[in-house]
Design a protein that fits this description.
With 217 residues, this protein is α/β, with parallel strands linked by helices. It is 36% helix and 26% strand. It is built from nine helices and eleven strands. The protein is elongated.
Length: 217
């Protein structure tokens, strides 16, 4: 996948590096040469450019990318303008970092397909982890759904997934089983596989259903 990352502050830089490490073609863009220099040898291409210049976006070939991530810090006017230009040159997916609900409302209107609040999302993720000691990790997918890595409750150990009936009882689906000691991840799960106390279950479901599962003893 070809992705443009516009704005190479802390968040944008980490997104660009993570996407490149995951095997995607990444075009990183910022007006500040020092920020571009930090990633130039760690992404597919890094350029100094003013993304608020529509012609510059066109010349860089952004109309051909599969997605663009816009992270311009507190520059609300800049992110709105860039989002509008990306929409005009037919970028299919435009992911924009917002700083307020009003900012999000405007971004939605000018063409953003995904508006994110990284600090807010991370705060919720940390809060959920703190409130549930058996949660290893929590990844929000939407307002209602999440993927969670969950330590096995004692009552689950020694039983199979078929016996536990987690989908029927809790409305969640187990999509993988991790073994932290060996870093092994089992993505092909048999209903007859016996769950060990040391396992970590990776489940997907509605937040309310996951919370019920977290409370299992």
């Amino acid at each position: 996948m070809q992705v443009a990352v516009i704005g190479l502050g802390i968040f944008g830089r980490h997104v660009a590096l993570a996407l490149y490490q995951a095997g995607h073609d990444v075009l990183a863009i910022d007006r500040q040469i020092n920020l571009v220099n930090k990633v130039k040898n760690r992404v597919t291409q890094a350029v100094v450019a003013d993304a608020s210049d529509k012609q510059a976006l066109h010349d860089l070939g952004l109309g051909l990318v599969d997605a663009a991530v816009v992270s311009l810090g507190d520059n609300m006017a800049g992110s709105i303008l860039v989002t509008m230009f990306l929409k005009e040159i037919d970028v299919e997916r435009i992911i924009v970092k917002a700083v307020s609900d009003d900012h999000k409302a405007v971004l939605d209107k000018v063409g953003a397909t995904d508006v994110i609040f990284p600090e807010r999302d991370m705060a919720l993720k940390v809060a959920d982890s703190v409130m549930a000691q058996n949660v290893v990790d929590w990844l929000p997918l939407t307002e209602d759904f999440a993927i969670v890595e969950l330590k096995v409750p004692e009552s689950f150990a020694g039983r199979t997934l078929a016996e536990l009936e987690l989908r029927k009882k809790y409305g969640v689906q187990v999509i993988a089983i991790k073994q932290p000691d060996t870093d092994q991840v089992n993505l092909v799960i048999s209903p007859d596989e016996e769950i060990k106390l040391t396992d970590v279950l990776v489940v997907i479901g509605r937040n309310d259903d996951i919370k019920k599962l977290k409370e299992a003893k």
